[in-house]
Design brief:
- The protein has 343 residues and is mainly α.
- Helices cover 77% and strands 0% of the residues.
- The chain contains 14 helices and no strands.
- The protein is globular and about 65 Å long.
- The two termini are 18 Å apart.
Length: 343
């Protein structure tokens, strides 16, 4: 049996390899030597330089960081609710982000007469701000409700209902909106690691570089929550406050990722199960960094497949995450249940 340290180093190596492959592979073939020269500040071919610096590097960084954030968020949700089907979108936070974008995108053409999709960079910034506002509004509502209800199941059901309510409102907005606005919203909802570039990418990576280490501070709290409320209380843990902190941490990660990349599905649900299968541990001191790395790895794999040579443009990220992740997780859960039957 390999040690957690060896498995972590192996994941780091795989992450680096996949990051490099994301720079090398794409619809346009660029030799390895030219890519190295471009990254070092050289390169004579301006087209290749533009592809690497303005497209491939931002996409790879965004995918890696977003995957890590969603994976950690999913682990936190599964821990606080002790539910293997819990994920980043379980409390309706992703739906809140979608609702914020829907209000801005779908109402811009109806009220302002100009579709947001025509505004270019300003339109992208407006959508990002709307997604953050929508997600944080739902997160604030969930945080308030969590102080009023005691049961995790009740909070979970309320979160699901908030998600359904947001989806219903989005449906009404779609019905009364112009076709061009609806198309722009649908494209945003498919998810993409390619829409983040320039200053937006720097801000996104910086925010996640701050939030991910901060989430590590909750490792001890999450380990205690696994023991059950009664036992955790006897050890001096404030259950209500701890649950609120974990939910806020998870919600903020989802809000930021959704604002910049759209609602990326499946990674937050699947990766924690994959990390548990790799490390054979429930200790969050091991699982947290392992899940973070596994999330980045899976997101880079999905981004690589989405823009593999031979495809025109790029495939929707949400389609790829499900196609890649579902068989992996199904096999992991099948092996686990098979091992349980043997003992």
């Amino acid at each position: 049996m390999r040690s957690p340290l060896a498995l972590t180093l192996l994941q780091v190596l795989l992450l680096v390899v996949l990051f490099v492959l994301n720079l090398l592979l794409g619809t346009v073939h660029i030799p390895v030597g030219d890519i190295c020269g471009i990254l070092l500040g050289g390169g004579d071919n301006e087209i290749w330089r533009n592809i690497v610096i303005n497209s491939r590097v931002p996409q790879a960084l965004t995918a890696m960081v977003a995957g890590a954030g969603l994976a950690v968020s999913g682990l936190q949700m599964q821990t606080v609710f002790r539910n293997p089907l819990a994920g980043p979108s379980v409390l309706g936070i992703s739906n809140g982000a979608s609702l914020g974008v829907a209000f801005v995108v779908l109402l811009s053409g109806s009220l302002g007469g100009v579709a947001l999709s025509r505004l270019g960079y300003l339109g992208d910034v407006a959508m990002s701000i709307a997604a953050v506002v929508g997600a944080l509004a739902v997160l604030g509502l969930i945080a308030y409700i969590s102080q009023k209800v005691k049961g995790d199941v009740t909070l979970l059901i309320i979160g699901v209902m908030i998600g359904y309510l947001a989806t219903a409102i989005i449906g009404v907005l779609k019905f009364f909106s112009a076709e061009e606005d609806v198309k722009a919203f649908v494209i945003w909802g498919l998810g993409s690691f390619g829409r983040v570039s320039g200053d937006q990418m720097v801000l996104f990576v910086t925010l996640m570089a701050i939030l991910l280490p901060l989430s590590m501070l909750l490792v001890k709290t999450m380990n205690l929550l696994l023991l059950g409320d009664a036992y955790a209380k006897n050890l001096g843990l404030n259950i209500q406050r701890s649950r609120l902190l974990v939910i806020i941490s998870s919600g903020v990660l989802v809000a930021i990722v959704t604002a910049y990349c759209g609602p990326i599905m499946f990674i937050g649900l699947a990766v924690p199960h994959l990390a548990r299968a790799i490390y054979h541990s429930s200790d969050h001191r091991i699982l947290m960094p392992g899940t973070m790395l596994a999330g980045g790895i899976l997101a880079l794999v999905c981004n690589l497949i989405a823009r593999m040579p031979g495809f025109e443009g790029a495939l929707p990220v949400n389609s790829v995450t499900a196609l890649v992740g579902a068989p992996v997780i199904a096999s992991v859960l099948f092996r686990r249940s098979k091992n349980d039957e043997q003992y």
